[in-house]
């Protein structure tokens, strides 16, 4: 039987999760409650049969899984508002960036299965990469939350101390990949394509390259070897990119983002 899920904070991420759970049939509409203060923006979800309300405590009382999807600065107030309704029978999943499990526990002052999840914007099309960490969770709780996010993309469990790194590689990573694709489009136009055709070729080529790694379990260099003919056009292009600092600039960008998140 599907569990009742309350999504506290029906913004971009909260609504994407609700849509994904419906589309994947992980949940039926009557088993999802979604809250926000101004519920007028959620009429479309309401039409699909999801319960849309403004009362967080009521949503918590009538649910087993609580997904917290408000902005980081709103977390404390929202948790203060629902902590009396939270019990050890609930599973609490926070998708809020940068708020530690220990900080959540301090506000609610009780022990319950508690998860942090770091998805990315591709959750809107059920192609997220979601990193999970948890505390006080039994095997069946872990399996359930893993299964839930598996319906919205791929999932891996990490230690909480790696959550900032997960934010950079998995969430900022979407922007990094977009810039790589954009540069390909710019190059594609320079060598003769119109923008639309260049966009299609660049995006599908990157998607296919990623699928090769995910489906074959190969290392990128193994796939590169398959397309680099000796003295050919691929290797000269690749080497020129490296002379210009391609890999180095990506690694430096990732480590700069990480330094920023770690000091904020
Ligand atoms: N977007 C992403 O891809 C992504 C990825 C990873 C993590 N995150 C994290 O996910 C969280 C949500 O991000 P988002 O992009 O979805 O933000 P968002 O669109 O601003 O959504 C937050 C929602 O919370 C609602 N809210 C605020 N106070 C509330 C309250 N007291 N009770 C109930 N609802 C309340 C807001 O609606 P009202 O003002 O109408 O109440 C708003 O719709 C953030 O902490 C972010 O760091 C986002």
Give a quick summary of the entry.
The protein has 264 residues and is an alpha/beta fold. The protein has eleven helices and eight strands.
Main sheet: strands, sense, barrel = 8 strands, mixed
Order of helices and strands: EHEHEHEHEHEEHEHHHHH
End-to-end CA span? 42 Å
Q: Are there runs of 5+ residues with pLDDT below 50, and where?
A: none
Strand order across the largest sheet:
3-2-1-4-5-6-7-8
Count the helices. How many?
11
% residues in beta strands? 5-15%
Overall average residue pLDDT: 96
- The number of strands is 8
Bound molecules: NADP nicotinamide-adenine-dinucleotide phosphate
Structural class: alpha/beta
**Rounded to an integer, what's the Rg over CA atoms?**
21 Å
Shape: elongated
Helix proportion:
40-55%
How would you describe this structure to a colleague?
It is a single chain. The chain has eleven helices and eight strands. The protein is of the alpha/beta class. An eight-stranded mixed sheet has the order 3-2-1-4-5-6-7-8. α7 (163-190) packs across α8 (195-216). The protein is elongated, with a radius of gyration of 21 Å. The mean pLDDT is 96. Bound molecules: NADP nicotinamide-adenine-dinucleotide phosphate.
Which features would summarize this protein structure in a list?
binds NADP nicotinamide-adenine-dinucleotide phosphate, 52% helix, alpha/beta, eight-stranded mixed beta sheet
